[in-house]
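_Per-residue structure_
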Amino acid sequence: MGFDTTELDQDSPVPLYIQIEQRIGRAVNVGELEPMSRVSSELKLAATFGVSRMTARKAVDRLVAEGMLFRRQGKGTFVAPPKIAHGLSTQLSFGQAMSALGLQLSTTVLRNSMAPAPDEVANALQIVPGASTVYIRRLRIVEGQPAAIHSSYLPGGYGAILNHDLSGSLTSAMAAVGARVEHSRDTVEAVLASPDEAEELGIEAGSPLLMIEGVAFSAGTPVRYTKALYRGDRFKFSVDTSQPADLRVEIKQ
């Protein structure tokens, strides 16, 4: 099984499900259970440790919530790969950041078309609600696993970008049509995956996601609104605070 299966301590004040959780977690941390390896089913865990299936499930649920394990519908429970550390302070694109980490990235363009601007997009781009925009939705796949969804809107005047390859750097494609990104203003928020997002990412609806919502500017004018959704079990974000930063914290009511 790849972890300690000796009898649980029935006399310990530590609940049985936590004892199981600790054993599996320890095996993951020391490499006895390798990333992407399948973990025994809840029924098998229950039989191995002489506990109820509910107790075994509680242990697995906690490990899934911690991001140490993940479930794949119809296939079982697996050891999660190490989280990808993505710096928010860097000027690197997502593709460049993955390349710097030695990770293989591919992109599936889910949609690229003209679309009317929703209210939040119109507000961000300083255009009239319903105005024509370029809508680009892409699935970012890291090491063969769906990892993030990037949805971007550009003002309609940049429609020529639809003639470019959008599976690579969007920033480079924007520069080719005259929209050179100089800086961006981003916010980070924890959200839950909708059923559609979950299906695209290969996770369960309601799974935690990290959302980066931002506006990119060129010569002081907003040229791109982006909502990027990252799997919470695959990513962690870092911020370099060695220099003074404009950091604002907003508490939702």
Remarks:
- The chain has two domains: 16-79, 84-238.
- The mean pLDDT is 88.
- The domain at 84-238 is CATH 3.40.1410.10 (Chorismate lyase).
